[in-house]
Design goal:
Helix content is 69%, strand content 5%. Strand 1 and strand 2 form a beta hairpin. The protein contains 15 helices and two strands.
Length: 265
C-alpha cells in the first residue's frame, strides 16, 4: 500500500484481520473496507499511543483522546480518522457515510451482510454465501425488519442460481418473497424454474404468484431469446470446435451464468 505518512517499524496488531499494520493509511484502509469489523473497543489508549509514538502523529492522538474523554461514539472516531488522513476523497467518504452513522446501532446480521456484499463484489461467492447465511440466522433475534432479511435471502438465491443449484436458489427466492412480496423475487423463481426445466416447480410458482399466461409467455420468450443468443454466439462456435478442451466448457458455463444473472435484475 502506498503511504504518505510515516511507516512504523513496529506493527500494530489488528485482531479482526489477524495481521499487523504499519501506517496511518493502513488503519484507514481497515476502517473503510472492513467497517463491519469495527467496534468501539478498537479505539483505545494502545491505538492512541501507537499513533502518537510510532506514527509520530501527536496532534491526531491527542484529538482522539479528547473524543474518548467526552465519550464519543464509534462513528465519531471513524469520521475523524478518515477525514484527517485525506486518504479517501469526498466521494469515497460519502459512499460509506451511512454505514459510519449507523455503526453503533448496527447488529450482527447487518455486519454480516456488509461483509457478504464486499465478498460478492470482489467475486468471492463462497465467502459471500457464508456471510449471508450467517446474517439470516439472526432473524427474530435483532431489531431488523423482514425486508432486510428478504434481501439477504435473495442474495443467497442469486449465488445458488449462478452456480446452477436450481432448487436451492428457488428455496431462497421463495423465502425472500414470503418475507417481503417483491415482484422481483417472484420473477426470479419463475426464471429459475424455466431455466432448470422443472415443470413441477414452475407450476407451483405460477399458482403461488398468480402469474398470468401473458406474463409467463413474456418470461419464456426472454429465456428462449437468451438461449438462442448464446447458441449463436462466437463462444458457442468456438466451444463446438474445441470440445477436447475442458476450459471452453467452463468459459461457456460462465457466459450462461452471466446472462442469467442479467435477466434476474
Amino acid at each position: 500500500m502506498l503511504t504518505a505518512t510515516k511507516q512504523s517499524i513496529t506493527g500494530y496488531w489488528i485482531e479482526p484481520l489477524k495481521k499487523n499494520i504499519y501506517s496511518l493509511e493502513e488503519i484507514n484502509y481497515f476502517l473503510y473496507h472492513h467497517i463491519d469489523l469495527v467496534y468501539r473497543e478498537f479505539f483505545n489508549e494502545q491505538l492512541f499511543d501507537y499513533i502518537e509514538k510510532e506514527l509520530q502523529q501527536p496532534v491526531m492522538a491527542d484529538d482522539l483522546r479528547k473524543i474518548a474523554e467526552r465519550k464519543g461514539d464509534t462513528g465519531e472516531f471513524v469520521r475523524y480518522l478518515l477525514n484527517e488522513s485525506y486518504y479517501y476523497n469526498s466521494r469515497e467518504l460519502a459512499e460509506i457515510s451511512g454505514l459510519v452513522a449507523a455503526i453503533d446501532t448496527m447488529g450482527q446480521a447487518e455486519r454480516f451482510k456488509i461483509q457478504g456484499d464486499s465478498w460478492y463484489k470482489s467475486g468471492q461467492l463462497e465467502s459471500a454465501l457464508r456471510c449471508y447465511l450467517e446474517a439470516l440466522k439472526y432473524r427474530g433475534t435483532e431489531d431488523v425488519g423482514d425486508a432486510f432479511y428478504a434481501r439477504v435471502s435473495y442474495a443467497i438465491g442469486t449465488i445458488y442460481a449462478m452456480q446452477f443449484m436450481c432448487k436451492s436458489a428457488n428455496t431462497f427466492f421463495s423465502y425472500a418473497y414470503d418475507l417481503s412480496p417483491d415482484p422481483a423475487f417472484a420473477r426470479a423463481c419463475l426464471y429459475m424454474s424455466i431455466l432448470a426445466g422443472d415443470d413441477e416447480e414452475l407450476l407451483s410458482s405460477i399458482v403461488k404468484y398468480k402469474v398470468s399466461d401473458d406474463y409467463l409467455d413474456t418470461i419464456k420468450e426472454r429465456v428462449a431469446a437468451t438461449r438462442a443468443e448464446i447458441e449463436a454466439s462466437d463462444e458457442m462456435r468456438d466451444f463446438s470446435g474445441n470440445l477436447e478442451h475442458s476450459e471452453y466448457a467452463e468459459e461457456l458455463l460462465q457466459l450462461w451464468k452471466n446472462k442469467y444473472y442479467t435477466m434476474l435484475k
